[in-house]
Structures are given as C-alpha cells and as structure tokens.
Q: What sequence folds into this?
C-alpha cells in the first residue's frame, strides 16, 4: 500500500447522483494526463536523487518548467522546514509553531535563514498592543505594519530586500501568538484549520500548508489518525479540467477531490510514492492545471468549451 490510509475527515462525500454526474463528465484524456504527470514527475525526482545525468525526462514541459513534487514532503522548502523547524530538538513546541507560521508566510528558506538569527532575542509579545491589532485587521498589509511601527515605536526596517517585510511578519506572528498557540492542544486537523482561519491574513492555502507541516511535530496529537485537505483555487481549476462539464466550486470541490481519491487509490496505486495523501492529490491538481496551461511538450491539453 503506497497511499496514506489514515481516516479522511472534514470532507463531505458526493451524493450517489453527484458521483454519477462526475463519472459522466470525466475527460479520459485529462485522466491520462494526470496519471502521466504523477508517474513522470516522481520518476524525475528519483532519477535526480539517484545521481542520474540530465535530462531526467523527455517531456519538454517537465524538463524546462518548475513543478512541485508529487508529494509535498519531497519539495525543497518542505524538507528544509521539517529538518530546521519541525524536528529541531533545540526548539520548544512553542518556538516550533511560531517559527513555522513565520516561515510559511515568508516562504523562503534563504530569507528566513538570513534574518531569523538576528531576531532570536526580540520579544514578540511586545506587539500585542490593540492599536497594532486594529490596524492589521482593517488593512492587513505589511505597509500598514511598517507605518504603525515607524510612527508608534520609532522602529525602521530595511525596504526592498525582503528583510523588512520578514521582520514585519515576525511582529505579526507575535501579535497573534496566543491564538496560534491554541494549536498545541488541537485534536484534529479541522481544529487547526479553524484556529488558523480565525487569524486575519491567513487564507486557505497557507492554512493547508501549515496544517500539513504540523504533522511532523511531536506535539501533534492527530498525526497518526487523520488527514484532510483544503482545495485551493489552482486545484479547483485542475478539477475542472478533469470534469469540464461539472460545476465545481468551494462547496463541492472537496467532495469531487474525494471522489478522485477513490479512483486514484483503486486504479493508480502503482504510480504513487509511499505515503501519498489526499493533500498531495490536491497539490497534484494544482500542478496539473499549470502543466495543462504551459505551451510546448507532448502533452498539451485543451479543455472542451
């Protein structure tokens, strides 16, 4: 068994009627493309890690464009995050969680490495002032952060190189640290989602990323029990390519993804890397959409109008 068999929660299955509609709407060419992308992208990773010489694929798009891995666990940024934050024995659970949220907002190992050690001794709790909180809730931008800090704290951050924006993120995480630390006691990924989505500025995509990363931390109570996925805009576009005649939106995208999950583990298990999750499948649909929109290569797909 290659796929993750933990219980999937928080996703409402399609009704029997909706499943029949999905089966009728499925484009077999796109299904073939999805199978090809999963298989070939994983082979590229294995060839690269085994030290095989370039080219690692004959597919023009996969050879020249940048795509995530089939499992997000294998992506460079995720591997860095797991090693340096999630499984860092020198960090407390509190530090791991707050550094994780900061890192995912910054979304760059290089930027995070460059600035985090300069701010280790900074007391993030200083930024719990209600005027700052109010300013963020009304505007929610780094510009608002910077203006408030410079006006009320006489603090100036560098501009134009990412460092200033990163320091502003640390302040932001400090403001919401008490809410974020509720995650330490969460009993399911759904509780984590609820806590994260209650924090202004953290959307569904970031929430999904952070929740996936939390599974690699020792304090996570549900990591061996449950899995789930939040279907983002890119993944919805990918699902629409597979089911061009089906209406897919926020309300039913999870059910459609769950329907495809059933097909994938039934017919495609041999293509899947070990530990493949429904969250990974969600990411694959985002990459499928990107792959289908790229020009060149041997697998260009144009959805029916």
A:
């Amino acid at each position: 068994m290659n796929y993750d068999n933990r219980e999937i929660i928080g996703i409402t299955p399609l009704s029997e009627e909706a499943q029949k509609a999905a089966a009728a709407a499925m484009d077999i060419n796109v299904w073939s493309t999805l199978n090809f992308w999963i298989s070939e992208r994983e082979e590229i990773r294995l060839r690269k890690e085994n030290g095989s010489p370039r080219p690692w694929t004959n597919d023009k798009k996969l050879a020249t464009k940048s795509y995530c891995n089939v499992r997000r666990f294998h992506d460079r940024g995720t591997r860095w995050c797991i090693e340096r934050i999630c499984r860092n024995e020198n960090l407390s659970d509190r530090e791991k969680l707050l550094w994780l949220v900061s890192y995912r907002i910054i979304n760059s190992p290089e930027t995070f490495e460059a600035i985090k050690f300069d701010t280790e001794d900074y007391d993030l709790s200083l930024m719990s002032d209600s005027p700052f909180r109010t300013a963020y809730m009304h505007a929610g931008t780094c510009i608002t952060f910077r203006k408030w800090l410079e006006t009320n704290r006489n603090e100036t951050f560098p501009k134009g190189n990412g460092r200033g924006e990163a320091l502003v993120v640390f302040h932001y995480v400090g403001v919401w640290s008490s809410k974020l630390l509720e995650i330490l006691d969460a009993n399911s990924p759904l509780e984590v989602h609820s806590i994260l989505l209650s924090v202004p500025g953290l959307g569904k995509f970031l929430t999904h990323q952070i929740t996936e990363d939390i599974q690699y931390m020792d304090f996570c109570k549900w990591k061996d029990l449950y899995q789930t996925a939040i279907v983002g805009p890119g993944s919805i576009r990918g699902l629409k390519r597979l089911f061009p005649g089906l209406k897919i939106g926020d309300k039913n995208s999870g059910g459609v993804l769950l329907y495809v999950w059933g097909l994938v583990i039934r017919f495609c298990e041999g293509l899947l890397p070990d530990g493949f999750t429904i969250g990974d499948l969600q990411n694959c649909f985002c990459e499928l959409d990107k792959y289908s929109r790229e020009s060149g290569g041997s697998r260009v797909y144009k959805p029916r109008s």
Observations:
- The two ends are 38 Å apart (CA to CA).
